[in-house]
């Protein structure tokens, strides 16, 4: 069951990455960096290691998977806090739906967001060393939503270097 779940998460991550790369309408190329922080969706992130799966209850009702680059994985495995500069975490999220094939199981539905955290203690000194990006279909959400990132992390995860996710054993 664990292997099937991880395979499902990997397949969904691949699908999400493909959706993020779809061309937009019109001739203009949209800015793909987040407002305030300038964070982008990292190249090749879907090949990164799984840090942990997660489930978000109502009202979002999402299945999530957090992936990390090598710097992040090494920091998690060694218990390094604060996370070193160069750490990048990517959270993929999908609507949580019941499997039509097996009632006790749930499966990812429609993709909702890709969220990115980048550690650069100098560049993002005012936000605990972290830059944030939230994307829908590869396009960053508005500035107002990005303004809520750090206050939420600061209020709830300051003792863990502003990161909610814990490494899955």
Automatic annotation (TrEMBL):
InterPro entries in alphabetical order: Cytochrome_P460, Cytochrome_P460_sp
Source taxon at top rank: Bacteria
Keywords (A to Z) from UniProt: Signal
Record domain Cytochrome P460: where: 42-165
Signal peptide: 1-17
Name of the protein: Cytochrome C oxidase subunit III
Lineage: Bacteria, Pseudomonadati, Pseudomonadota, Alphaproteobacteria, Hyphomicrobiales
């Amino acid at each position: 069951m664990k292997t099937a779940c991880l395979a499902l998460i990997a397949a969904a991550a691949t699908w999400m990455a493909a959706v993020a790369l779809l061309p937009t309408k019109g001739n203009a190329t949209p800015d793909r960096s987040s407002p305030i922080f300038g964070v982008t969706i990292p190249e090749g992130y879907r090949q990164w290691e799984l840090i942990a799966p997660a489930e978000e209850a109502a009202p979002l009702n999402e299945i999530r998977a957090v992936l990390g680059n090598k710097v992040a994985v090494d920091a998690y495995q060694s218990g390094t806090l604060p996370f070193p500069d160069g750490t990048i975490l990517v959270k993929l999220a999908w609507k949580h739906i019941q499997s039509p094939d097996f009632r006790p199981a749930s499966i990812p539905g429609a993709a909702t967001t890709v969220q990115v955290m980048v550690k650069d203690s100098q560049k993002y000194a005012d936000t605990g060393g972290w830059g944030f990006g939230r994307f829908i279909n590869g396009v960053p959400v508005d500035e107002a939503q990005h303004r809520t990132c750090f206050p939420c992390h600061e209020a709830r995860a300051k003792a863990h270097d502003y990161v909610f996710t814990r490494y899955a054993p």
